[in-house]
Amino acid sequence: MRDLLSLEDCALAEPTPGSQRAYQWMFRILGAYLDERPPSRISLVELPDGFLLRLYPYTDLNGSEQQVVHFQRETLGTQLKQLLQGRKGRSARTFQHRGVWSSFENGHQDLFRSLGYELDEASAQGVLIDELEDGVLLTYRYLDSAASSWKKRMRVLTREDIQTILDDALERREQPVKEFAHQRRRA
């Protein structure tokens, strides 16, 4: 099992000011939120002030019961804490992930954090994530420094692509541990 944070811990783990890992932090929180009550499908749209998250519950076959939550970028951690306080006293339930997420034991949080890293590396903006029947649509814009212009990138992530992204993220997290152990052996 990978190092997932509880929803409460995500709310407390604010990034340091000026952090270059803004998407990684924000998406980890959003993923933890989704894993608390996994929907059948999600759509996430970046807005100038944050994110609009549309959730489709498993019980809603015609799309009429969708839930829409607006997360403001500047207060994401605070909003999450308020959402958590609103559900205090409810018993924690374990949900079985379905659809594309059924192949990944850690659900949304692990992939969203990993995607956040990739988006931070690309200096992405205007992110859109839309869950498909057997994958995830990801689109964003980025600054092409060679052409000095903004370009649009779109990619449909299959289950295999998602597994590769997760494996790469795990390797990145293990790398500092391996380097530290190697340095200690040399000392």
Please tell me about this protein's structure.
The protein is of the alpha+beta class. It has one domain. The protein is built from 5 helices and 6 strands, in the order ααβββααβββα. The chain has a 6-stranded antiparallel β-sheet with strand order 3-2-1-4-5-6. A hairpin with a 4-residue loop joins strand 5 (135-144) and strand 6 (149-158). The two termini are 32 Å apart.
Key features?
187 residues; alpha+beta; six-stranded antiparallel beta sheet; 40% helix
Distance between the termini: 32 Å
Average pLDDT number: 77
How many strand units? 6
Order of helices and strands: HHEEEHHEEEH
Task: Summarize the entry for a quick read.
40% of the residues lie in helices and 26% in strands. It has 187 residues and is of the alpha+beta class. The chain has one domain (7-186).
SSE topology:
Blueprint: H1 7-12, H2 22-36, E1 41-47, E2 50-56, E3 67-72, H3 76-86, H4 107-121, E4 125-132, E5 135-144, E6 149-158, H5 159-186
Helix pairs in contact: 2-4, 4-5
